[in-house]
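Q: What structure does this chain adopt?
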Amino acid sequence: MEENKNLTPEETVVETEIPETIEKKSKFNMRLVKKGSYSVAVTAIVLVLIIALNFLINTIGEKVSLEFDMTKDKISTLSENNKKYLENLDEQVFITVCAEEKGYRDGMMDSYAEASNIYGGTDYYKQTITLIEKYADASDKINVEFVDTQDSAFAAVTAKYPDESIVYGDIIVSAGERYQKLGFSDIYEVEYNEEYANYGYTMYNVTGNNLETELTGAIRYAITGKTVSFALLTGHSKKDYTEDYAVMLEKNNYTVENIDSAFVNSISKDYDVAVIAAPTVDFTPEEITALSKFLENGGEYGKGLIYFADATVPVLPNLTEFLARWGIGISEGILFETNENNHMPEMPTAMGLFPDEDDEITENMNIFCTGCNVPMKVIETEDEGVSAISLIATTETVVNAPLGTSDSWTGASDYETDSFSGLIQSVKTKDEKSSYVFAFSSAEFIASQWAQYPSFSNMNIALAVSERAGAVDDSASFVTKTITNESFAGDVTEASAGVVRMIFVFLIPVITLVLGIYIYIKRRNA
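A:
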């Protein structure tokens, strides 16, 4: 380009500065664009991450719940008492699962069960594998092996147990020469599907997982070879309240025998524990003597008696006097809860009870629920060798209502409120052997709709008491756990779920987007 010689020196300077200014502004604008693009990019990345997080929570929530056990009832976690028992093992125990681990978890167990018209167990099968793995983690004495029934190595398993018919999914627990086999019906609870029966189909549904109870019971048997024997004295009861209780005992490797005789002149020393549930007929003086001799065990002690009361019948004088000698005081009446926050809706006689004494037997148990509770308290006894304590109690807002009082009773304000015991433990020891007498305030601890609720510890405390009453030398006190397919979802209300959705799905992304736009505009105008 030719030089313009007619321009003044000042004009020449201006002409030479214009390109440089434009270049600076151009670079400045490019920096703004880059900064703005960066903000937008960060915003987009954050939004993508939030969306991905929501997606992951929805898709892997169940797996996280199983592996890290965020469920409200810890359905994939070993109970604390069970962990302590396993940690104290001093003998090698072998758990052989007759299945391939991945196959059992991912569908083979489903196929096996469905061949027998059993459905709905997928989550329970996964829980089984998760719990078995946690057994191995709980003790270095536990050895877990998975052997596929289609593998050549399975021949060694069948050869080792020639008297057993072993099928896919069976679990064999062994220690030394002793062993016990757990089959499908031992591990899983199954219910008949009546709805499909109406259409002519035979179908069953898996409704629970009893692995922890069964597996620990099998371990204890394989190590000790011991069984504790229970005598259920039902001859004085109008109704047998012990059916569910007996099933629970048997699942824990106890032997159970029902004695329905109207008169018990003696109780064999072959039994370790006698159980009396909701008697409606008093015991004769001769029968009371038989109970005393059983507990004394020929002067050696070491026996147990478990009594479940029933407030729907009058006090039985002979039995009440016998229990009083063990520091257990029972009065006539029925307990009535005046605090509406601590009883079932419109059922003041069905109340919550709580651990009373700092005792390991109620460790990790929070609340119990029963109705028809008798007024019961620890009392002084003339026998100095007897020691009694209350293990479970009501709140201090309970009144002793007249016998026969219904849930609609309105006279509670005329009575003084107090706290009553729901479970009393009495013990007498001689030569390091202890005989126990346990008294529950109601048979509904073991025979009611409340006993089946996983949120209540009714059956857990019944089993723990049975362990102690049986004076088992290894002191294993694991609790029964029927694993139901629940999660914390049951505790989440629609309102709280809506708040969470609003925060994570709408509010946080919008705030992030607005913040990104603000930063972009701020820098754009800087």
